[in-house]
Specification:
2 copies of one chain form a homodimer.
Chain A lengths: L29 H19 L4 E2 L1 H8 L3 H11 L3 E2 L3 E3 H12 L5 E6 L3 H8 L1 H5 L2 E8 L8 E2 L2 E5 L3 H8 L3 E4 L3 H14 L3 E4 L12 E4 L2 H15 L10 H4 L2 H14 L2 H5 L26
Parallel strand pairs in A: 4-5, 4-8, 5-7, 8-9, 9-10
Antiparallel strand pairs in A: 1-3, 2-3, 6-7
Helix pairs in contact in A: 1-2, 1-4, 2-3, 7-8
The first copy, chain A, binds a DNA duplex (24 and 24 nucleotides) through helix 1, helix 3 and strand 2.
DNA sequence: TAGATTGTTAATCGATTAACAATC
DNA sequence: TAGATTGTTAATCGATTAACAATC
């Protein structure tokens, strides 16, 4: 039960782009890339406090990782530290910023200005690091024309022109799930090659387009999984004696359950009736009939 | 870490293995747990279309993963498929739901009712799968008393009572970063053991408490990293000939740069002047002086 | 039965970590 | 110099994937 579970990729993105990209751009591992923003944030805080240098130990603590990992991560960027001394804060801020591409301007469009779109438009961290909201877009005539975060909401029809003239390469999708793929297609068609998806849908994109997703409900479900196991009386699924039984016993047990037909539905009271071919027992079935006492 | 909440699954069979179970709950890999919600979503869609069975190939496509991975994932749960046929949709929906703990009710508190808190309170996916907003909380007297998503915003002072009486074990933090750790401490003290953090801060929690974070600005920075490399005109950092040079050459180059003192600032125009001890050149320095043509 | 598809194996790949030589 | 701390190595761990025997 690791504390923090600073989820190497809280990103929760199975990185759809990674497969076809020259495996790892520049040889920097994805896991390392995902941590660079964390280091940068910690370094920025140190910088604001005018701290001149920091050791891997201190910086790692601030970023919530261990120091060996941090040093390994930095080793992919180059040798930016000084043995016996540590890292120069300002210098490292600059190097990581540059590595992440934050020394340039990234115009972004947000599509779907509902509650979440509003929240994102107002998000301070947006503008802070090179990202700039180029436009807010919505398909709903009732929303178009209103303002959010001081910007007018424009109609989807303007998408192509905005992307082209403002050189937008990053799009944020905050539409309802039903509209997400369609919006995604249109963004890609217009020239956007990186998409941050807040809609709970799997997006299909052509090669060369990166998608990352942020999914509240998935995060909550992962928490629930672990929470369920803290409570003490865990469901026994998959942890029954069956799991530790030798192969032949398991096979025999499965066969018996199949023959019996309805054992599972009995035990798991709210389970749907099993009518289809896959009606096999899971490992949490009552196996008292076939297991030695 | 044990908290006083009703046993979530008291109807389950006793678990003889619980006592000696290793830390990783049930031996299901984290990566697999993180994908279960994805499978569940795809299965739910199939269920709504009354599709009775699905093959690993079809389901994998719908979830955006490859089928070998899906079958491996499912193998951790048990044998819920039928060779030659596939998986029973309804049955699998139930099994995964139960595995994730979604067959029980999860009351959740949201702390910090700004734009994002509002958005989350209104988020449909929240209620859909066992999660229920038990309370909205804020410290600002101007916000307290207003309503969001039909619920009254209550004062932080009520936190402890709400958590205790409603058996809340999951908290969502949508406060400004400066308040996040303090709010987190208070949630933990009150008995919350799972936290979903939207504030851009690293939270420190005691053992037994899980934290997951959702961080827009980190996601954007990761996209920017990859985007930068698509553009074609990559910065040369870390990709210079130096990286491919043999050790001795690198060492010599570093030494020379150190002696020269200001080489880097020249080349990287916006780099901060290097004044501190760690003022070494990075791999993108101009090395023409020491590298063979 | 013949065809289809699962569940599992084993090879591979990538990420983490402790330890320590290099070196400031 | 002596102490401190990096950068790197190597061991380990965990995740992915293709392939295929088992079996419906």
């Amino acid at each position: 039960m690791a504390i923090g579970r600073p989820s190497p990729s809280s990103s929760q993105t199975p990185d759809p782009g990674a497969a076809r990209r020259p495996s790892r751009a520049r040889g920097i591992p994805e896991a390392t890339v995902a941590r660079l923003p964390l280091y940068l944030r910690a370094l920025t805080a140190l910088s604001e406090r005018s701290v001149p240098t920091v050791s891997s130990e201190e910086l790692a603590a601030a970023a919530g990782v261990n120091s060996a990992k941090l040093r390994k991560d930095f080793s992919y960027l180059g040798s930016y530290g000084t043995r016996g001394v540590g890292y120069d804060v300002e210098y490292l801020v600059y190097q990581i910023s540059r590595e992440l591409g934050l020394t340039q301007d990234w115009p972004v469009v947000i599509v779907g200005i509902g509650n979440l779109g509003h929240a994102l438009a107002n998000y301070g961290g947006f503008a802070s690091r090179g990202f700039r909201v180029a436009a807010l877009l919505d398909a709903d005539p009732n929303v178009v024309g209103s303002t959010a975060a001081g910007l007018p909401v424009r109609h989807m029809d303007e998408l192509e022109e905005i992307v082209a003239t403002q050189h937008v390469s990053i799009g944020v999708i905050t539409t309802p799930p039903g509209a997400a793929q369609q919006v995604c297609d249109r963004l890609v068609e217009a020239g956007v090659t990186s998409i941050l998806n807040f809609a709970p849908t799997v997006l299909t994109v052509p090669d060369g387009v990166d998608v990352r997703k942020v999914d509240l409900s998935i995060e909550l479900q992962i928490l629930a999984f672990h929470e369920q196991r803290k409570a003490g009386d865990e469901p026994s699924a998959g942890d029954s004696v069956l799991d530790r039984a030798p192969g032949p016993v398991r096979a025999a047990a499965a066969k018996l359950r199949r023959a019996a037909g309805g054992g599972k539905a009995e035990q798991a009271k709210t389970a749907p009736a099993k009518t289809a071919p896959a009606a096999k027992g899971g490992p949490d079935d009552d196996l008292s009939a076939v297991m030695p006492a």
